[in-house]
Design a protein that fits this description.
The chain has 255 residues and is of the alpha/beta class. It folds into two domains: 165 residues, P-loop containing nucleotide triphosphate hydrolases (Rossmann fold, 3-Layer(aba) Sandwich), CATH 3.40.50; 67 residues, no CATH class. Helix content is 31%, strand content 26%. The strands form two sheets. Strands 6-7-8-3-9-10 form a six-stranded mixed sheet, sandwiched between helices. A four-stranded antiparallel sheet has the order 2-1-4-5, covered by helices on one side. Helix 3 crosses helix 4 and helix 6 packs across helix 7. 36% of the residues are buried. The site of adenosine-5'-triphosphate has 13 residues, from strand 1, strand 2 and helix 1.
């Protein structure tokens, strides 16, 4: 569904060229949940923004369903860490935002918004304003708003980065279920190894200076993942190994 071919992205600054992404190639299948994982500054957001049409590659090309990506499209939607809700609108009206460019009746817009608010467990909050909601709830509204335009692809840039650990785990479970139920293709940026192992069908492991793909890891875990299972921990360890973060000393524990 998404073909990234030999993409290099560089920026000019004070007469110097900074190569942010260097010859990155990647194919993403329809319905896959892909996590872009890597240290700060390795170009995860830059790659996501290029796929989403916010940024043009310096060389190489990106195609979505065989069309070169030139600009953002309604067929794919980006969700950012800072929810981007309009504070003066109710939750319901925020979810309806993306529908306003389409010629739907008032009733149809309200029906679609209610459907997706229900999907994220917020039907009871429809009349509230964003400031009356917790961070986790605001991000749920942003997810409902993105889903309401029924995109084929969701691009998510560290969407849970600002949330506390427990809320984050709840939202991870929910987005995984929603992505599976609605058969979305998801490209999700994170620097959290556990989050990537919990969510991804495949993890794209990136290295920095310049940003490159260091490894592609297929996560062969069941649909419903258990963060404490041996298989989960083995895959997490494998990622640590790829980042050279695993200690090779044997430690004995006495409890
Ligand atoms: N418009 C720009 N002009 C110059 N440099 C840029 C621009 N956008 C990004 N960069 C640089 O590109 C590099 C990669 O940035 P990017 O935000 O893609 O990294 P990231 O892996 O998503 O990092 P983080 O996890 O910290 O968000 C950084 O060094 C950043 O300073």
């Amino acid at each position: 569904m998404i073909d990234v071919s030999n993409v290099t992205i560089s920026f000019e600054e004070e007469n110097q060229t900074h190569v942010i992404l260097d010859d990155v190639s990647l194919n993403i299948e329809k319905g896959e949940f892909i996590c872009l994982l890597g240290p700060s500054g390795c170009g995860k957001s830059t790659l996501l923004n290029a796929m989403a049409g916010f940024l043009k590659p310096t060389s190489g090309e990106i195609k979505i369903e065989n069309q070169i990506v030139q600009k953002p499209s309604m067929k794919y939607v980006t969700i950012f860490q800072n929810y981007g809700l309009l504070p003066w609108r109710t939750v319901q009206k925020n979810v309806e935002l993306g529908l306003e460019t389409q010629k739907y009746s008032k009733e149809k817009k309200a029906k679609i918004a209610s459907h997706y608010l229900k999907m994220v467990g917020l039907e009871h909050a429809a009349k509230k304003r964003p400031a009356q909601l917790s961070g986790g709830m605001q991000q749920r509204v942003a997810i409902a708003r993105a889903l309401a335009v029924e995109p084929d692809i969701l691009f998510m840039d560290e969407p849970f980065g600002a949330l506390d650990a427990i809320t984050r785990m709840k939202l991870q479970t929910d987005i995984l279920e929603i992505a599976q139920d609605t058969k979305k293709t998801v490209v999700f940026v994170t620097h959290d190894i556990e989050e990537a192992v919990f969510l991804a069908d495949r993890i794209v492991i990136m290295s920095a200076n310049p940003g490159r793909i260091k490894a592609l890891l297929t996560v062969q875990l069941p649909k419903h993942r258990d963060r404490t299972s041996n298989d989960f921990l083995m895959i997490r360890d494998k990622v640590y190994e790829i980042f050279n973060m695993k200690s090779h000393e044997t430690i004995e524990y006495y409890i």
